[in-house]
Design goal:
This protein is α/β, with parallel strands linked by helices and 316 residues long. The chain contains nine helices and ten strands. A hairpin with a 4-residue loop joins strand 3 and strand 4. Helix 3 runs parallel beside helix 6, helix 4 runs parallel beside helix 7 and helix 5 runs antiparallel to helix 7.
Length: 316
């Protein structure tokens, strides 16, 4: 697709679709899912993320249209609770990514971003004199209070966050519900981060993982979305639990206009103005061009494309 401005904005997209035991193929300018029931068409251009669960096959043509539509494709485990691989986002500019890298590489600037995220998460003013360890303690108390409040309101017992990735069914229902809900949230945050040209690996509070920034951003919403949702779903005793959680997430993400919030919150976290969507694509008129060359002291660099077949000295 030559002009990504023709795609729906992230904030206007559907959140995610999880599929399993089916074949995904191209259908005209969209995709279709084929299973024992028949054919189900999906508007890929209006979808933020497609989660492919076990027993799923996807054709080359389908992947091409999904990439053109800026739809993130994630290969995941059963119920969407394991992450194996993902496609790339659609932005063609590195400006926000370079800004993110500058912030994460400077300890003072990184602490400012971490402080801003804590403040956004709990809607409270953060004491500017608190160091990082004190900020973590401040956060921990509020998260524990959120779990306790959800348990009290729903009557679901809470004995702490415990789960074993290698033994899914060994966890109690509320821990399984939390993991399933958070998995959906991670997928949506991941899609938003890539869609806006940022790195999911360059986290500010979390670090050292390919999804560190995904975990940072997802934490902004857990206390108001996934934690209350998980406890309510367990209290309602709806089964199968994981599927009920996914459906509840889909509805709650839409109710909270989460994609709209992500489009505003991601630049806010990084101290940027709200999404100037034109700027994300204007620097790459020719996708095949190598772009600019780094030059110290210049934000954009210098024009590349030297012809090395000529005598660089200027002599014959």
């Amino acid at each position: 697709m030559d002009d990504l401005r023709t795609l729906p904005k992230l904030r206007d997209s559907l959140s995610y679709l999880y599929v399993e035991h089916c074949c995904v193929d191209r259908k005209d300018s969209a995709i279709a899912l084929y299973d024992q029931v028949g054919e189900t068409r999906v508007p890929a251009a209006s979808l933020a993320i497609l989660m492919l669960g076990p027993g799923t096959r996807v054709t080359h043509a389908a992947m091409a249209v999904l990439a053109e539509s800026n739809c993130l494709v994630v290969w995941c485990g059963e119920q969407g609770v394991r992450f194996y691989a993902h496609g790339t986002g659609g932005t063609r500019s590195a400006s926000w990514l370079l800004h993110q890298a500058r912030l994460v590489s400077d300890d003072t600037l990184r602490l400012e971003v971490a402080r801003r995220m804590y403040q956004m998460r709990f809607q409270e003013e953060v004491d500017p004199n608190l160091n990082l360890e004190q900020l973590r303690g401040w956060e921990g108390r509020r998260v524990r209070d959120t779990y306790a409040r959800a348990s009290q309101e729903t009557g679901v017992p809470w004995h702490g966050r415990h789960y074993d990735r290698g033994s899914w069914n060994a966890a109690d229902p509320v821990n399984r519900a939390l993991s399933a809900a958070n998995s959906c949230l991670y997928g949506l945050c991941h899609a938003a981060i890539l869609s806006m040209g940022l790195s999911p690996a360059l986290g500010f509070i979390h670090t050292g993982k390919q999804l560190s920034f995904v975990y940072d951003i997802a934490d902004l919403y857990k206390t108001v979305i996934t934690i209350p949702l998980a406890f309510r779903t367990v209290a309602q005793d709806t089964r199968p639990l994981e599927r009920s959680v996914r459906l509840a997430c889909r509805d709650l993400f839409r109710e909270h206009r989460l994609l709209d919030r992500l489009a505003d919150d991601l630049p806010r976290v990084l101290g940027l103005k709200p999404e100037p969507i034109e700027n994300l694509f204007e620097g790459d008129v020719d996708p095949a061009a190598p772009g600019y060359l780094w030059e110290p002291g210049t934000p954009q660099g210098v024009a590349g494309g030297l012809n090395y077949s000529e005598d660089m000295s200027g002599e014959e």
